[in-house]
Amino acid sequence: MNFWLKKTNIFALILLFFASFSSIRAQGSIYELQSGTKISLRMETEINSKVSSVNDTFITKISKPVIVRETIVLPVGTIVEGRVVKVSPSSVGGQSGKIEVVFENMRFADGTKRNIEGALVDEIKADSAQKSNVLTIAGGAALGAIFGGVSKTENGALIGAGLGAGAGTGIALLRKGKNVRIKTDEEFEIELKKTVVLPVMDY
Fold first, then answer.
1. Mean pLDDT computed over every residue of the chain
2. Does 66 or 24 have the greater pLDDT score?
3. Distance (Å, whole) CA 82 – CA 108
4. What DSSP string runs through 19-62?
5. Domain limits of the chain?
6. Strand partners, 66
7. Are 62 and 78 in contact, with CB atoms under 8 Å apart?
């Protein structure tokens, strides 16, 4: 009788162990950052579509601690390294600059590194130059209409407006768009695209 009771207790303990292990795995290990994890960063050195080049690298630092199961696994100041993968400066015609970056490495205080695949949560965008271009064209048309009206010729205002609009359009086409950048000390978010196994530390 005692033999079967012992066997039953052992079996129950084994089941309890596996249930606990499965529960921990479901919650996620503190040594893993799952794909989809968002990380807040602060830029250390500005990147700019006017001067940056493809394969330029840059340094950011974690600005808010990353917490897994009530444990800080990535403290503020942890270094995340990024790289420029595509860039084009602003150009005439109001064409804004573009810059694309990826985040490839995470460097810890003890010098340990981990490869990561991180992407910006929000795209880097410049303020639109379209509104100012429209104002330039409209302003040119209004000014032309005034001069046309002063000429006292038939349809003078209409002709003047057309000439003015043409001049305004020419100015708009010559105007350059704006370059995009992430400024020094600017904060932003990235998202991990694959799970990262963290080094074992004394958390």
1. 74
2. 66
3. 15
4. HHHHHHHHH--TTEE-TT-EEEEEESS-EETTT--TT-EEEEEE
5. 1-30, 32-127+177-197, 130-174
6. 74
7. yes
Q: From residue 64, how far is each of 10, 54, 168, 194, 201 by CA, in Å? A: 45, 28, 48, 20, 19
Contact 129, 175 (CB under 8 A): yes
3-state SS class at 171: helix
Q: Is the pLDDT of residue 139 over 80?
A: no
> Which run of H or E residues covers position 71?
strand 71-74
Alpha carbon 4 to its chain centroid, in Å, reads 62
Q: How much is the pLDDT for 97?
A: 87
* Opening angle at CA 199, ends 194 and 203, nearest 5: 115
So what's the pLDDT on residue 93?
Answer: 63
The whole-model pTM stands at: 0.64
Q: Are 151 and 12 in contact (CB under 8 A)?
A: no
pLDDT for 17 beyond 50: no
Q: How many residues would you count in the chain?
A: 203
Second-level CATH architecture of 32-127+177-197: Beta Barrel (2.40)
